[in-house]
């Protein structure tokens, strides 16, 4: 299939990253540690303390040891919930000094925001490492100091019935600085920062709860994955809950996600939003709203590269434009 050949060729043409697996601050123990609502919030978006906050944690150069490209960040939730955020960001940078209360000075030189979304939703599973969805790698170099991660959330909430979120697992050895609200004048805590998993080569899938709109059958098409995005394996990208009978769906492959949703109501797709850019498109025939596209991943692709997906289903009675869209998903290639 031509579209699959284009996709795989694009993945193979990317610059290779060093494969060094994962490092931990302080250890690979996502089931242990006192829960803290910082920085993901307590589940109440109007909470004056935890609804909106800025939070920084510094990873010592001794933990990372050498220059490397970090392709994914993980945290360890203490509870299982559907979490929503009006805004969700992770900024990364270097700091040759110790952390201070003036948070704006805790990053020196080059920084980037590999995690940056508006109107975002994802599920947390208790006591398991949760990937945060980096859109591109961050190059860490110890000659410039320690690694700093800054989390910013705005109106951090839980889905109905999910209030009282336990937060993330912490460790008493990890200092951090944080502030309630959007400012940069923080408070230094000597310990109890969140645990982290930092990977330079990892594979997996994430099925997000954002995106999608109701079709003529009253259901929202849902994207799912089966198989594996590990090199040498086949990943099946699936859709279900589309219109009944024989149909057609378009799968969009995007190498960078949209920071915020693009409302498609203006073109006649009432209540629908696009979460991806159309870098590569694939067309699939569906049966009773379900279909699948297999993607074979040969050895030699770029470890850590991410591809974001959203289905667009032909559904003429659903709205004036005749298309509905699915929820969003992401897969990450690993060796």
Domain count: the total is 2
Please state roughly what percent of the residues sit in beta strands, choosing from under 5%, 5-15%, 15-25%, 25-35%, 35-45% or over 45%: over 45%
| Rg measurement, Å | 20 Å
Mean pLDDT: 91
Report the total helices.
2
Please state the structural category: mainly beta
Number of strands: 25
- Poorly predicted regions: 15-19
Q: What portion of residues is helical?
A: under 10%
This entry's quaternary arrangement is single chain
Overall, the morphology is globular
Main sheet: strands, sense, barrel: 6 strands, antiparallel
Kindly report how far apart the N and C termini lie. Answer: 24 Å
Order of strands, widest sheet: 7-6-10-3-12-13
**SSE series:** HEEEHEEEEEEEEEEEEEEEEEEEEEE
């Amino acid at each position: 299939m031509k579209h699959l050949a284009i996709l795989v060729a694009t993945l193979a043409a990317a610059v290779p990253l060093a494969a060094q697996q994962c490092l931990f601050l302080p250890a690979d123990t996502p089931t242990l540690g006192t829960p803290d609502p910082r920085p993901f919030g307590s589940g109440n978006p109007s909470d004056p303390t935890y609804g909106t906050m800025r939070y920084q944690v510094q990873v010592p150069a001794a933990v990372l040891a050498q220059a490397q490209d970090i392709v994914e960040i993980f945290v360890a939730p203490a509870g299982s919930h559907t979490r929503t955020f009006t805004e969700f960001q992770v900024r990364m940078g270097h700091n040759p000094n110790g952390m201070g209360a003036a948070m704006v000075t805790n990053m020196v030189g080059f920084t980037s925001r590999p995690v940056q979304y508006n109107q975002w939703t994802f599920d947390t599973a208790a006591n398991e490492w949760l990937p945060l969805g980096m859109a591109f790698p961050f190059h860490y170099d110890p000659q410039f100091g320690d690694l700093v991660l800054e989390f910013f959330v705005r109106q951090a909430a839980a889905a109905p019935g999910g209030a009282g979120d336990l937060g993330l697992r912490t460790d008493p050895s990890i200092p951090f600085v944080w502030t309630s609200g959007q400012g940069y004048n923080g408070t230094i805590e000597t310990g109890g920062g969140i645990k982290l998993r930092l990977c330079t080569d990892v594979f997996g899938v994430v099925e997000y709860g954002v995106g999608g709109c109701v079709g003529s059958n009253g259901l929202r098409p849902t994207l799912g994955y089966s198989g594996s995005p590990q090199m040498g394996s086949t990943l099946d990208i699936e859709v279900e809950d589309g219109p009944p009978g024989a149909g057609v769906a378009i799968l969009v492959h995007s190498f960078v996600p949209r920071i915020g949703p693009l409302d498609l109501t203006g073109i006649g797709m009432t209540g629908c939003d696009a979460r991806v850019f159309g870098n590569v498109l694939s067309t699939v025939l569906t049966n009773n709203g379900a279909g699948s596209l297999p993607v074979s991943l040969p050895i030699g692709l770029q470890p850590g590269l991410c591809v974001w997906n959203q289905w667009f289903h032909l559904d003429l009675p659903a709205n004036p434009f005749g298309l509905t869209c699915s929820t969003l998903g992401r897969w990450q290639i690993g060796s």
